[in-house]
Description:
The complex is a heterodimer. Chain A is mainly alpha-helical.
Amino acid sequence: MNRRAYHSAAIAAEIAVPLGILALWQWWTVQAADPKFPRLSTILVQFRELWLFSQFELHVVPSLTRIALGFGIAVVLGIVLGIPLGLSRWARIVAMPHIEWWRAMPPPALLPISIVLLHSIGNRQKVSFIAFFCLFPILLNTIDGVRGIDPATIETARSYGIRGLERIRRIVLPAALPQIFAGMRTSLSLAVIVMVLTEYFSSTSGVGYVLLISKNMFQLAPMWAAIVLIGLLGYLLNLLLVLVERRVLAWHRGWRAAAAQ
Amino acid sequence: MLGLEVVSAPGVASVGSVSGETRAVVGGFAARLAPALVMALSVAAFLVLWQLVVRAGLISEQDLPAMTTTFSELWSMMHTRSFWTAFGETVRGWALGLSIATLLAVPIGILLGSSQFALRSFRVPIEFLRPIPSAALIPLLFLTLGTTLKSEVFLATFGAFWPLLVQTIYGVRDVDPVALDTARSFGVGRFERLYRIKLPSAIPYIATGLRISSSVALILAFTAELFMGTGGLGQLMNVAESFGLTVQVYALALATGFLGLAIYVVFAALERRALRWHPSQRVEAT
């Protein structure tokens, strides 16, 4: 009984605390009456007016397209490059200095260069920029995942005559997949940040552009609505990836649960 | 091949053990030297390629200055006072942001990690705030705190806070329950349990969080400088970019890259130290 009471209290707290924070926000903005901090209710009304769905196609769709393309390219390249690097020690030794250098480079430091080098402030620059910085977490995790495969598994595959691409498709890739997904999660949140940065620096459309323009024109409610939208996008994209991961790795979780018993 | 291995097997080597050991040492030396050499060659090859691509005119020198031009620009920059002032400002913003984030995230993480109830209460707000790209806060900071150090530090702190918080929570929750129960049955008090058992076992996780957060804090300190004009390397780059001084932009990117690499190397070494006893590190030790 006591345990059940505790559980219901925990569930109540899980619902009440977020609502309390929102209420506090509303109360504080009403009380402060500061134009820089519009009321939460004003922001939500603005949010509905802008993003559901009058400006959705104009600004949200381009941003999402850039993330999807950039992230997709990074996933493919990260896996395709990561598997041979994970399998060959010498390839790793040759590539590691370059990987370590670029992954340590702060993305905004390359923003002006990307525009000069690619002669573009359009999708070409934005997608390649997002893809470039999303590549490294996936690449490094793929390498780690491939390196971590139990040698006995590889030996068994070899003695059964499974080799070449077949071995990679059937054994190496599935074994490395949990770690590849860990890299993808890091990359996806990076993709949202980098997307905002590239659109904020130079662009003619996108969520980051709306953020910049409304700030420059002191339209504070739209600016806040854009901040809420970006937060929501980050949250939803992450959620989507977690759901995909759960589906794709269902065998893995099931296997682990069975092993634990 | 097989024969050689049989000859060098331990049983045969009563006389040859010394030479065998020397060979192992020499072999170890060569085995350690060769990768370093290949790495150096790989870096050199990249630099030469950069030079050749520009000199051969594959990419116009207006878009990509030659490697030698860029490095000599960086070299002459390093003889100016303004470069080092900016460098110091970037490091200051980074250090303040990371320190404040650590001072906040570690205690809060321990608190949330120690209480199931507290964790569940704040799970939704944390899950919601964590993926918010801190870059979205730039315009807000621009209007509230202005182009000051405060904006830069706030942004760096906000970004660095979340990875550290999550790592600390995981760390505290991963404490060996047997150790905790044993301590409890020996009458070790609540505070001492925290200090003697929970914190030490969370330290590897905190070290990993610090490694991630140290990079994030630098990214955001630089972002604040580039977009808001707070003093630092980012602001220098913004000025160079608006005057079309491409060589300077490249040299500043190099400088920022070296700073990022230095921070990464230091914090990865710290992490390895904190993880020395952990199984995941044993593979690398051999």
